[in-house]
From TrEMBL:
<feature type="transmembrane region" description="Helical">
    <location>
        <begin position="105"/>
        <end position="125"/>
    </location>
</feature>
<feature type="transmembrane region" description="Helical">
    <location>
        <begin position="200"/>
        <end position="224"/>
    </location>
</feature>
<dbReference type="InterPro" id="IPR020846">
    <property type="entry name" value="MFS_dom"/>
</dbReference>
<feature type="transmembrane region" description="Helical">
    <location>
        <begin position="170"/>
        <end position="188"/>
    </location>
</feature>
<feature type="transmembrane region" description="Helical">
    <location>
        <begin position="522"/>
        <end position="541"/>
    </location>
</feature>
<dbReference type="GO" id="GO:0005886">
    <property type="term" value="C:plasma membrane"/>
</dbReference>
<feature type="transmembrane region" description="Helical">
    <location>
        <begin position="386"/>
        <end position="405"/>
    </location>
</feature>
<protein>
    <recommendedName>
        <fullName>Major facilitator superfamily (MFS) profile domain-containing protein</fullName>
    </recommendedName>
</protein>
<feature type="transmembrane region" description="Helical">
    <location>
        <begin position="411"/>
        <end position="437"/>
    </location>
</feature>
<feature type="transmembrane region" description="Helical">
    <location>
        <begin position="43"/>
        <end position="68"/>
    </location>
</feature>
<feature type="transmembrane region" description="Helical">
    <location>
        <begin position="321"/>
        <end position="341"/>
    </location>
</feature>
<feature type="domain" description="Major facilitator superfamily (MFS) profile">
    <location>
        <begin position="42"/>
        <end position="546"/>
    </location>
</feature>
<keyword id="KW-0472">Membrane</keyword>
<feature type="transmembrane region" description="Helical">
    <location>
        <begin position="137"/>
        <end position="158"/>
    </location>
</feature>
<dbReference type="Pfam" id="PF07690">
    <property type="entry name" value="MFS_1"/>
</dbReference>
<feature type="transmembrane region" description="Helical">
    <location>
        <begin position="449"/>
        <end position="472"/>
    </location>
</feature>
<dbReference type="InterPro" id="IPR011701">
    <property type="entry name" value="MFS"/>
</dbReference>
Length: 622
């Protein structure tokens, strides 16, 4: 019997991942899937499920986004392309806080199961849609599900990783897109060219099947781990009443934010189709009413909400606020600039949807690869704030290059280069901001702050989509009226680029393309102005020690002095290979790199770990 086994019998300490009822007698009940409560096999099984699910969902997103313009054109409503993403973003903004609260009460597994069910129902409805309204209904279910999948997957990552590793794992979650971009591009043209015009429905059938498999790959291990972790915790979940649920989830706040965003943002996209445009009192009245509801939302959250959608602790922390606003601005700018870019390339360069989709993928590819690059930099040099500054500056340079790249005679190289430079900077800044915002809160607030980031990203999508729709439907008609002198149906010139514009006479088509390019350049200028605001937000950021353990991070988040976390007689002691109890500092000085340790904490509990990592200076539980 080795020394470790003898000591286990002596002190009754379970090995890591095998916890008994004495593990945490005073532990407050929570649904956090902490790594210390899992075995290695459970952890790797769960993470395999997370990555497979992420790959399947990203494949669906790449393909359905690639044919989205064609589907809108199928219903001859290209100018309303921004409506469906706006609906999705509005719902995401309202649903994220509810999902994070539900997952904190009922567990990550139950919340994700509901999310996947709604997601698959939405794909089914979209695939069977017979008119544009049906697509909108499908988007409601789809958005409800996708919101939960995206938000709770990030929560699971934050639950199970250390602060230094979190950036890499966030990046790994998105790496499936690197493959899916190209695979989806191969399928776009076969689904949009030749044969029945509605064969795009095959994409939704295919995606429903693939996404269903991905859902099972995550749900099965997640439920298993959820049950096992719950058994290992002695604490019992308290009984909850319906009144408690309504208060805890801030149903009133969620309803107000949904109403406010819908009433404020949808008129920006739909006003052009209303009689009299913005002179129509109904359009102006709906927008004004939405603004009033939005003001009331702030009053409600500040004065009456017992559990606000986003805690005031987030807004009063400079680093959390700055990081969240950077992610928000990146999303706003992206949606403003790229919402109608594929359709513009289709018109100006006589491309198919698949070719146009491929031409703009440089942004997404660079974003994904440089997210991973940023994660490696953060882990190696432990500097997140510097990565944000570099990312934002590179991003602004890329967006600035997009202005000349939107000219109808711009080279393909300039189009791709501007996209790629902006994507590289945006990916670095977004990843580093995600790490920093989770590094300044208590572990109990991880789900809340991840939810807050998802809320602002969704809000950014809603604002960006509505801005894009508003600018496009208002500015493009004025450009068409100004530059098109030949007989052209201006409504079809906006809404039917695939057939009507491509079949115009060369002279008339050149005038239409010029008007489109002027509108695109104007949107790029607006996007550059939004991107520049990121510099102000970066200036708010404070240093975050990425090497701190979770206990230290929790004390800082609670306003306590991390240096006074333990008194001298409360310091953790360690038994090295069963020989003698020594202080942590003595182990570090001894240079021991491989040994068996037992950690005895101040409350008398013990936990086994093995392998002291001298570079990272923290205990590794294997």
């Amino acid at each position: 019997m080795d020394s470790r086994s003898r000591e286990e019998q002596a002190i009754g300490t379970p090995s890591v991942g095998e916890h008994n009822s004495t593990d945490a007698p005073n532990e407050e009940f929570n649904q956090i899937l902490e790594r210390k409560h899992m075995t290695k096999r459970e952890f790797y099984w769960l993470w395999a499920g997370v990555l497979v699910q992420a790959f399947c969902v990203s494949f669906e997103a790449c393909l359905t986004q690639g044919i989205g313009g064609f589907v809108a054109n199928y219903f001859q409503l290209t100018s309303l392309t921004a409506v469906l993403p706006t609906i999705l973003a509005v719902l995401q903004t309202a649903l994220v806080p509810i999902y994070t609260k539900v997952s904190d009460v009922f567990g990550r597994a139950g919340a994700l199961t509901f999310a996947f069910t709604s997601y698959l129902i939405g794909l089914t409805i979209d695939g069977l849609a017979q008119e544009f309204l049906h697509l909108g209904i499908g988007q409601i279910f789809y958005a409800t599900g996708l919101t939960g999948i995206q938000a709770l997957s990030q929560v699971v990552i934050a639950d199970t990783t250390s602060l230094l590793e979190r950036g890499i794992m966030f990046a790994m979650y998105d790496m499936g897109n690197v493959i899916n971009i190209w695979v989806a591009q191969v399928l776009i043209d076969p689904l949009t060219l030749g044969g029945p015009e509605d064969k795009w429905r095959i994409a939704y059938i295919l995606m429903g099947c693939i996404s269903g498999v991905g859902a099972l790959c995550l749900i099965i291990p997640l439920w298993y781990v959820h049950v096992q972790v719950k058994r290992r915790k002695q604490s019992v979940p308290p009984r909850r009443t319906l009144r408690w649920l309504v208060t805890e989830f801030d149903v009133v706040g969620a309803a107000l934010i949904t109403i406010a965003l819908s009433m404020m943002l949808l008129p920006l996209v739909l006003a052009r189709r209303a009689p009299g445009n913005w002179k129509n009192p109904n359009v102006y009245g709906v927008f004004t009413a939405g603004l009033v509801v939005f003001i009331f939302l702030f009053v409600w959250e500040a004065r009456w909400a017992k559990r606000p959608i986003m805690s005031t602790k987030i807004w009063t922390n400079r680093t959390a606020f700055g990081s969240l606003m950077i992610m928000f601005l990146l999303k706003v700018q992206g949606n403003v600039v790229w919402q109608y870019l594929t359709q513009y390339l289709l018109v100006s360069r006589d491309l198919t949807y698949g070719e146009a989709f491929l031409l703009v993928r440089g942004f997404q590819m660079a974003w994904l690869l440089f997210q991973l690059f940023a994660g490696v930099i953060i882990k190696r040099w432990k500097r997140a704030r510097l990565v944000i500054w570099i990312g934002i500056i590179v991003y602004i340079i890329g967006v600035g290059l997009m202005i000349p790249a939107r000219h109808k005679d711009a080279s393909t190289f300039l189009v791709v280069a501007s996209q790629s430079i902006a994507g590289a900077g945006g990916g670095m800044a977004h990843l580093a901001a995600s790490v920093m915002v989770t590094g300044v809160v208590h572990k109990r607030d991880i789900a809340t702050v991840v939810g807050a980031s998802q809320i602002l990203v969704s809000f950014g999508s809603a604002v960006g989509n509505s801005m894009a729709g508003g600018l496009w439907t208002q500015y493009l008609p004025s450009m068409l009226e100004k530059h098109v002198t030949l007989p052209v149906n201006l409504d079809k010139a906006m809404n039917d680029p695939r057939v009507y514009v491509k079949n115009l006479e060369p002279a008339a088509k050149a005038q239409v393309v010029y008007a489109w390019s002027e509108a695109q350049k104007f949107m790029s200028i607006m996007g550059l102005a939004v991107a520049a605001l990121g510099l102000i937000c970066a200036a708010l950021l404070q240093h975050v020690n990425l090497e701190q353990d979770q206990d230290t991070q929790d004390r800082i988040a609670m306003g306590l002095d991390p240096l006074e976390a333990k008194s001298q007689d409360e310091k953790d002691t360690y038994s090295v290979d069963g020989k003698a109890e020594v202080a942590e500092e003595e182990i570090k000085e001894s240079g021991v790199s491989e040994a068996s340790f037992s950690l005895v904490t101040e409350n008398g509990q013990a936990r086994w770990t093995s392998g002291w990592d001298l570079q990272e200076t923290q205990w590794q539980g294997l």
